[in-house]
Amino acid sequence: MSNVTVFCFLASYLVAFGLEIARWVRQVSINRMVMLAAAAAGMVAHTIYLLNRSGQTGMPPLLSSTHDWMLVLAWLVVGSYLFLTAVNRKLPLGVFLLPVVIFLIVMAYFVSDGPNLSVGPKAAIEQAHSGWVMLHATLLVFGITGVVVGFVLSVMYLYQHRRLKHHQAMVNDLALPSLERLARLNRAAVIISVPLLTLGMLFGVFIGLLSRKGPNPISFADPIVISNAIVWLVMLVFFVWLLATKRPVGKQVAWTTIWACGFLLVTIISLQVLTGGLEAIQTWH
Length: 285
Fold this sequence. Notes:
The protein is 78% helix and 0% strand. Helix 4 (66-87) packs antiparallel against helix 5 (94-110) and helix 7 crosses helix 10 (250-284). It has helices at 6-25, 32-57, 61-64, 66-87, 94-110, 121-126, 130-165, 179-211, 223-244, 250-284. The two termini are 33 Å apart.
């Protein structure tokens, strides 16, 4: 069990994605159970890896490092994929969700796997605020999972819109939800994720204020803190617009969500990679 590496579950997800692509593009009839088995095997290895990491660091994966935090996010997306695919066998969700999982795992390789000192979790934990930090990290990871789901639903909406416009049929009895249902699910994902992100941000501010009483205060001038605040404001503006629009046009919602979610993911991940690289350089020196 201790020999499980990132490559073990990444390889399983790549196999599952390859089978999804084969079923989608080459019209190959593949047993759904084979794809689910490959993804499930990857999730088991994924879980074991996170548990091992937690044992090594003595902290939950959400708090131990940026590397582990991103792998938890990927784990939640895989869980969503397995559940939804098991419920609806005709839904080719893996074509849209598994690339996100693979991307997150690859990005996790480039970030620091040590304590993320730049955003203060270790300092906060040392000051006996671990419960608040855990709540902060949990709200953010579930909020970003909702953002990922909204992003994927947006891509599915645009693909379905294009397919129907050009009168293209689905292959091998595969089916996508109707445009109306995709727009409704898209709206729900945004409405759920934005409050979670907002609460996560508020608890982050609260933790920062608490840390000022200790020897290791969290700096609100940190680039990651500032970028997260900007992203939150962008999502909040979109959230208010979405609620204020009585009958939003589905395609408009999809494009706006792709832009907002893409902005969020690229900003957070790129800064985490940059921070991880800087920490690695500092450690090397």
